[in-house]
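Structure request: EamA domain-containing protein, Acinetobacter equi.
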Amino acid sequence: MELIFSAALCSVVVSILLKVCRSKGFSMIEMITWNYAIASILCYFWFQPDLQHISVLNTPWLLILSLGILLPSVFLILAKSLQTAGILKTEIAQRLSVILSLSAAYFIFHEQFNNYKWMGIALGLVGVLFVLWSHRSTSLATNKGVLYLALVWIGYALIDVLLKYTTGLGLQFAVVLNLMFIAAFVISLIYIKLKYKTFGAPQNIFAGLLLGCLNFANIALYVKAHMLLKDSPAVVFAGMNILVVILGVLSGLIFFKEKLKLTTLIGLIFGLASIVCLALAF
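Returned structure:
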């Protein structure tokens, strides 16, 4: 359980770091770029993917490049959502992206569903709608927050689906993870060099390296928890998602004085119920 808690804590600290750095004027794109530099290095030494025997012809490079573009793009959207909608709602939207991933698993990958999965998807969808509804306003800035929340929800689900599809083609998870981190770093580095004529200011590079360590720690600890509890995937899935939502809500309320509206609270309850149902579906 310590691994699950640590993974969840790293995930929430990533969100806190993004929100604080953005408010202090750090460049998000530069931070995110260097985040993938350290993440790709850590991934190589931690998971030890067999990159030497990759088939140049058989590797789905278009999918890898797509993930390389999608990863930093969704990370940027996450940073904007944290700033406009807050950690509380962003964490709920990010975690409930699993219901879109599961829907894709049913319609695209033809996975078998039981009643718990259907119930989890239904409850999760209601939860997301309540969270989006709670952020409605006539203010343009607030409405942008709704858009960013929706894009976070869709974006993380799309990454999950593409990862599942790529690994389904025969590539190992560690290989895909390493290649997409490298692709995300190279593509982002080329982008900031062409647009801003720089590889990054020192403070943004340092913050990005810290972000990458936390981001990778979240993934590594979560995978390690699944390996150690391979007979109890429901415990890992539910524990991780519920802890991230709860820690995200607490950090929003305590550190950033965000308000928990009734509609957000209802969305949170539906979201947690959804996660429990999906865990029971394992």
